[in-house]
Amino acid sequence: MAGHIGIVACSAEGAALCYRTICVEGAAVLGPHAHPEVSMHTLSMADHVACLDRGDWAGVGALMLASAHKLAAIGADFLICPDNTIHQALPHVLPHSPLPWLHIAQVVADEAAARGFRRVAITGTKWLVASEVYPEKLAARGLRHARPTDAEREECNRIIMDELVCSVFKPESVAYFQQVIAGLKDRGCDAVALACTEIPLIIHDGNSALPTLDSTRLLARAALKRAAQSETA
Fold first, then answer.
1. Sheet holding 5-9, edge to edge
2. What is the count of structural domains for the chain?
3. Above 90 in pLDDT, residue 37?
C-alpha cells in the first residue's frame, strides 16, 4: 500500500494545486485512477499572517506543529507543506515533529541541479525572498541565486497576498511577474524558482522569460514518489 501523505496547508490555492497534482499524476505511478492516501489540515490563514506580520516564526512553527500532530493522529506517514514562506519556521518544527517532512526548497534545488541550471532567480512573498530558505538549499547544490529588487518584492508580495491567495488572477499582475523575471534573466539567471505555491497559477514555461521551477508541482511529485516507494518497500 502506498504511503499516506499529510499536507500541512496554509494558503488555499497553493494547497489545492498540490493536492490536485498528487491525485491526478498518481495514476501514472500507481495505475488508472489511483493515488496515495492524502490527508490535509488547514488552520486559518489569518493566524499564519498575524505571526508573519510580527515576525513570530516560533508562532508559525506552533501552528505547523498543531497540523502535524493532527495528521499524525489520523495515520499520515510523512508531511509536506505547500507554502514556501512558512518553511522559515521549520527549525522550530523539526525537533518536535511527530513525522518526517519533505522540504520544498530542497526539492526545487535538486531539480535545478538535475537540469543543469547555475543561477536561480527566487520569486515569492517578501518574507520568503528575504530569507535564506532557498539560498541555503541552492548553495548546498553548488548553485547561485538572485533576488528581485526591494520594490519588486513589495509589489510581488501585494499581488500574492491581495490577489493570488484570494483566487484573483489579473492580466496586469501576470505582466508584472513577467517583467520581474525578464529583469532577473538580464542579471544572469538561467531559471526562476516559483517559490510561492500560487505563482504557478499565473506563470509557467509558456509565458516566462526563464525556464520555471514550479515549487508546487515539484513538491507534489516528490511526495508522490516517496509514497509510491512505501508501496514497493
1. 38-42, 5-9, 78-80
2. 2
3. yes
